[in-house]
Amino acid sequence: MIIFAFILVGLVLVILQTTIFMIHPLWDFSPDLYYILVAYLAYRLDLFRSLIILFPLSCLLDVFSGTILGMYSVLCYSGYGLLRFASTRLPVSESLYQVPLIGVSYLAVSWVIYVMMSFFEPDTLVEWSWWKTILRTVLLVICAFPLFRIFEAMNKRLQRGILPWNKLRIKSDNRFRH
């Protein structure tokens, strides 16, 4: 159930990303909300579930964005791998590094993708601008706080189960027996 719910959340984030937050593909103020879901999956869920959720998410991003096919798949999987690797290796408290690490990893992955695409498809790329990328990173970090809370509440609710089975159980007449 967790996989299905997070795929639906990813679908909603992709639709928001490609319709409302992206007036045109080069708009400066469009936060990449899917990357927050990628980060949450890297921090909280196991590898198998995360990859099952990331596969349709990255395919949908490639189809809906209309840019170079495979670019968002590489962005999602490399961001997931980088965040997963870094989160297991850092000795500090989890709450201290989660959101800043999202910003740093987004900058690093975006730059690597840009360099890779400049070799493969040099005619289709826009020029690299640090201030635009940093602006998108700041928007991403600002949006990460409320989305992480929503994802965490949803994950806790789904782990408890949708139906409260213990409330539906018939209780015995003996009040001393547990």
Short description:
With 178 residues, this protein is mainly α.
Tell me what the structure shows.
The model has no long low-confidence stretch (mean pLDDT 81). 25% of the residues are buried. Helix 1 packs parallel to helix 3, helix 2 runs antiparallel to helix 3 and helix 2 crosses helix 6. The two termini are 30 Å apart. Helix content is 74%, strand content 0%. It has one domain: Arp2/3 complex 21 kDa subunit ARPC3, CATH 1.10.1760. It has 178 residues and is mainly α. It contains 7 helices and no strands.
Features:
Arp2/3 complex 21 kDa subunit ARPC3, mainly alpha, 178 residues, globular
What is the domain total for the residues?
A: 1
Number of helical segments?
7
Enumerate the spans where pLDDT stays under 50 for 5 or more consecutive residues: none
Mean pLDDT level = 81
* Ends apart, CA distance between termini: 30 Å
In the CATH hierarchy, what is the class?
A: Mainly Alpha
Tell me what the CATH architecture is.
Answer: Orthogonal Bundle
Overall number of strands: 0
- The helix content, as a percent range, equals over 70%
CATH fold description: Arp2/3 complex 21 kDa subunit ARPC3
What is the approximate shape?
Answer: globular
What characterizes the major β-sheet? none
Rg calc? 19 Å
Structural class: mainly alpha
Strand content: under 5%
Element-by-element helix/strand order: HHHHHHH
